[in-house]
C-alpha cells in the first residue's frame, strides 16, 4: 500500500518587505541579502496572524466535505506555539469545524517537527488505511531588529493531507536519521526571539546533511544519480545551496545539471517568503512541484529535514501519476500577487506590535487583514479567534 502526501497548500501574510530595501536600511550591500543568503522578499506577519491562524488559512484550502469526514488526526508542528499546555491543533480543529471525533496534538523539535509528524502519520495510516491525517507546519521566525539573524526572518504555514494511495508523493521505506545535542539555535521560555549561533548552525546543517545522505547511500545502494531532485530545509536558500554543492562533485555532469536546475525551482517560493521554520522544507517541496517543467510521474525526490539542536532526516518519495492535478499553483500565485510591500519603518512597527504578556484585554484592528481566519485579540487571558466572511 502506498502512503504519502495527497494534498499540500501554503499560506503567508499579506505583507512583505523587500530585501534590498532592508539591506540599505541596515547599511549593508543589497547583494549580501540577495546573493549572500539568497533571499528576495521577507514575509511580515501582522499581530492579527499567529501560528494558529496561519495554519487554519493554509488547511482551509485543501479541505472538502469528503476529506473532512476522513480526517481523524490533526498534528500541529510548530516552534511558535501559543500555549505551554494546550496544543495549536485543538484550536485548529475548532476553527476548521472538523469533527469532534479526532485526536489533536502538537509536536516540537525546532524545524524538524513537521517531518516527525509526517512519519507518525505514515505509521498511523498503515494501521488505519481508511483515514487521513492533517498536518500543519506553522511558524513565525523572529530574531529581532538590526541583528545578524534579521534577514532570515519570515513566516507562514504549510498544510498537508497524508493518506493511502496519495496523489502527489508516495513515501519510500528507507530513511536515515541523526540526533546530537548541540546549541546552534534555541529559544528559552522567557524569550520572544530565538538565540542562534549562525555560523555554527550553518556548518552543522551541512555536516548533518552529508552524514545522513552518506548513511542513506550505504543503506540503500543509491547515489545522486537515482534522484530527479533534492528538496532541502531552507531557513534561507543559500544554506540549501551550500549543502547541495557539498555533494554535487560525487555526481556526473548530467546529474549535477539536473539537480542544480531543480534546486532553483525548489527555492523560488522560499526566496520571496523567508523562514518558515517547520514548514521550510515543505514550502521548498511545494515550490519544486508547482514550478517544475521537467519532473514527471515515477521520479524519485530526496528530502532533507533539519531541526536545530539538532535532529535531521533524509528520506525519499516517488512522484505519482498526474501529481500536478492535485496541486493549486493558481491559488498560490494569486496569494503572492495580492501581497502588499511595506517600507522598513512599517515593517519595524508591525514587528514590535506584539500582544501583551500580562493577560491584558486587547482588541485588534481587523480591517487590514483579508485572511479568512484572524486573531481578534485577547480577553481573560484567552486568544480570540474569528472567521471572516
Detailed description of the structure:
The structure is a single chain. The protein has 2 domains: about 230 residues, Thiolase/Chalcone synthase (Peroxisomal Thiolase, Chain A, domain 1); about 160 residues, 3-Layer(aba) Sandwich (Peroxisomal Thiolase, Chain A, domain 1). The N and C termini lie far apart (about 40 Å). It has a 9-stranded mixed beta sheet with strand order 5-4-6-7-1-8-13-12-11, sandwiched between helices. The chain has about 400 residues and is an alpha+beta fold. The chain is built from 13 helices and 17 strands. The longest helix is centred in the middle third of the chain and has 23 residues. β16 and β17 form a beta hairpin. α3 crosses α5, α7 crosses α8 and α9 crosses α11. The model has no long low-confidence stretch (mean pLDDT about 95). The radius of gyration is 20 Å and the shape is globular.
Q: Radius of gyration from the CA trace?
A: 20 Å
Low-confidence stretches: none
Q: Indicate the percent of residues in helices.
A: 25-40%
Total strand segments: 17
- Strand numbers in spatial order across the main sheet: 5-4-6-7-1-8-13-12-11
N-to-C terminal Cα separation, in Å? 40 Å
> Total number of helical segments?
13
Oligomer classification? single chain
Class derived from helix and strand content: alpha+beta
**Mean pLDDT score:** 97
CATH superfamily of the largest domain: Thiolase/Chalcone synthase
InterPro entries: HMG_CoA_synt_C_dom, HMG_CoA_synth_N, HMG_CoA_synthase_prok, Thiolase-like
Keywords: Acyltransferase, Transferase
Enzyme class: transferase
GO molecular function: hydroxymethylglutaryl-CoA synthase activity
Amino acid at each position: 500500500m502506498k502512503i504519502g502526501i495527497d494534498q499540500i497548500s501554503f499560506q503567508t501574510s499579506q505583507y512583505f518587505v523587500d530585501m534590498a530595501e532592508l539591506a540599505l536600511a541596515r547599511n549593508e550591500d543589497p547583494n549580501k541579502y540577495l546573493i549572500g543568503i539568497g533571499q528576495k522578499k521577507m514575509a511580515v506577519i501582522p499581530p492579527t496572524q499567529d501560528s494558529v491562524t496561519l495554519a487554519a488559512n493554509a488547511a482551509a484550502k485543501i479541505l472538502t466535505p469528503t476529506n473532512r469526514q476522513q480526517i481523524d488526526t490533526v498534528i500541529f508542528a510548530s516552534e511558535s506555539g501559543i500555549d505551554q499546555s494546550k496544543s495549536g491543533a485543538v484550536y485548529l480543529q475548532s476553527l476548521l469545524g472538523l469533527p469532534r471525533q479526532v485526536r489533536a496534538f502538537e509536536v516540537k523539535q525546532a524545524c524538524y517537527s513537521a517531518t516527525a509528524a509526517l512519519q507518525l502519520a505514515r505509521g498511523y495510516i498503515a494501521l488505519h488505511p481508511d483515514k487521513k491525517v492533517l498536518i500543519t507546519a506553522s511558524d513565525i521566525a523572529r530574531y529581532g531588529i538590526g541583528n545578524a539573524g534579521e534577514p532570515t526572518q519570515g513566516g507562514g504555514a504549510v498544510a498537508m493531507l497524508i493518506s493511502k494511495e496519495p496523489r502527489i508523493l508516495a513515501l519510500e521505506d528507507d530513511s536515515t536519521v541523526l540526533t546530537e545535542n548541540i546549541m546552534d539555535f534555541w529559544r528559552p521560555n522567557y524569550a520572544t526571539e530565538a538565540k542562534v549561533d549562525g555560523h555554527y548552525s550553518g556548518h552543522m546543517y551541512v555536516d548533518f546533511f552529508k552524514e545522513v545522505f552518506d548513511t542513506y547511500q550505504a543503506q540503500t545502494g543509491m547515489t545522486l544519480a537515482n534522484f530527479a531532485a533534492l528538496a532541502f530545509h531552507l531557513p534561507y536558500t543559500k544554506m540549501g545551496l551550500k549543502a547541495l554543492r557539498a555533494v554535487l562533485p560525487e555526481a556526473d555532469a548530467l546529474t549535477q545539471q539536473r539537480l542544480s536546475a531543480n534546486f532553483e525551482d525548489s527555492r523560488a517560493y522560499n526566496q520571496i517568503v523567508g523562514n518558515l521554520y517547520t514548514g521550510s522544507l515543505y514550502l521548498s517541496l511545494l515550490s519544486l512541484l508547482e514550478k517544475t517543467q521537467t519532473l514527471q510521474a515515477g521520479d524519485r525526490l530526496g528530502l532533507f529535514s533539519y531541526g536545530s539542536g539538532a535532529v535531521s532526516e533524509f528520506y525519499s518519495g516517488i512522484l505519482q501519476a498526474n501529481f500536478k492535478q492535485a496541486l493549486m499553483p493558481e491559488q498560490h500565485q494569486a496569494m503572492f500577487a495580492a501581497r502588499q510591500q511595506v517600507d522598513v519603518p512599517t515593517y519595524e512597527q508591525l514587528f514590535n506590535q506584539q500582544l501583551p504578556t500580562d493577560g491584558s484585554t486587547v482588541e485588534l484592528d481587523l480591517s487590514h487583514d483579508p485572511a479568512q481566519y484572524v486573531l481578534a485579540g485577547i480577553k481573560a487571558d484567552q486568544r480570540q479567534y474569528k472567521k471572516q466572511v
